[in-house]
Design a protein that fits this description.
Shape: globular
Largest sheet: 7 strands, parallel
Radius of gyration: 17 Å
Low-confidence stretches: none
CATH class: Alpha Beta
Helix content: 40-55%
Number of domains: 1
Bound molecules: nicotinamide-adenine-dinucleotide
Order of helices and strands: EHEHEHEHEHEHHHE
């Protein structure tokens, strides 16, 4: 018997990085987990690792019909949902002066609209006492060049952790946020040229009080804590950044 035996969880963007580590932790502790993502190949590879307690649903969080289909799968396969980890996101970096409307719209469609409607569509299936965890970022309280769109989107999610909690608490559902610092998941390499990513990573390590990146597993532990164990915590943001924004 694991700590989360009998519990059902959805992890959006659960095919890689922080989402996959969280799905793994939950499965290891006995939960049934539904992961989502846009790439079937990524989801298939993740399922091989996660085993029989996991299922995958392909879909784009920015497309509301995909979220409706996800909600139907949750209803059919789980009945009710005990934890929702809203993790899917992209980290496009754009200098303010040259940010295009297309880049702005894509980032907000996935990171903000996608997160908002993921919660709205799955909320009817959340059980009493369920936990929702939104994935923000330390970027939401920092002024880092080229992150103006990304950081603003994460700040919007930080705000939603408070306002959505207000509307869901009458059903006993808590909404909180986990705010990762730098975690080496390949997200930086996807967002910038390799050399710039290496330079950025070296700067992050040098400036971090713990002189290292966080691991996906460390964020997963915080997300699981907020979703299941933090039963008197609502509307909060748990920062997991080696102290970078706190010390
Ligand atoms: P990642 O790229 O491994 O994970 C993101 C996941 O989201 C991927 O599986 C991807 O397929 C999925 N995804 C992206 N767009 C999607 C869409 N439209 N529909 C469905 N799925 C989609 O990167 P990660 O570092 O694990 O990031 C996970 C979350 O953590 C993101 O929200 C990110 O902004 C946040 N975060 C990461 C860091 C970091 O340093 N890695 C720091 C702060 C916050």
């Amino acid at each position: 018997m694991g700590k989360y035996s009998g519990k059902n969880a959805v992890v959006t963007g659960g095919g890689s990085g922080i989402g996959l580590a969280t799905a793994q932790l939950l499965v290891d502790e006995g939960a049934r987990v539904m992961i989502t993502g846009r790439s079937q190949a990524t989801l298939d590879a993740a399922l091989e690792r996660l085993g029989a307690h996991a299922v995958a649903v392909r879909g784009d969080v920015a497309a509301l019909p995909d979220l409706d289909a996800l909600a139907d799968r949750v209803r059919d396969e789980f009945g009710t949902l005990d934890a929702l980890f809203v993790n899917a996101g992209i980290a496009t970096l754009t200098p303010f002066a040259t940010t295009t409307e297309e880049a702005y719209d894509e980032l907000f469609a996935i990171n903000v609209k996608g997160a908002y409607f993921t919660v709205q569509k799955l909320a009817p299936h959340l059980s009493t006492g369920a936990g929702v965890v939104l994935t923000t970022s330390v970027a939401n309280v920092m002024g880092v060049p080229e992150t103006s769109v990304y950081a603003a989107g994460k700040a919007a999610l930080r705000s939603m952790a408070r306002s959505l909690t207000r509307e869901l608490l009458p059903r006993g559902i808590r909404v909180n946020a986990v705010s990762p610092g730098p975690v080496d998941t390949g997200v930086l390499e996807a967002a910038m040229p390799a050399e710039a990513a290496e330079q950025f990573k070296a700067q992050q390590v040098a400036g971090n009080p713990m002189r290292r990146f966080g691991t996906p597993e460390e964020i997963a532990g915080a997300a699981a804590f907020l979703a299941f164990d933090a039963t008197y915590t609502a509307g909060a943001e748990l920062v997991v950044d080696g102290g970078a924004t706190q010390l």
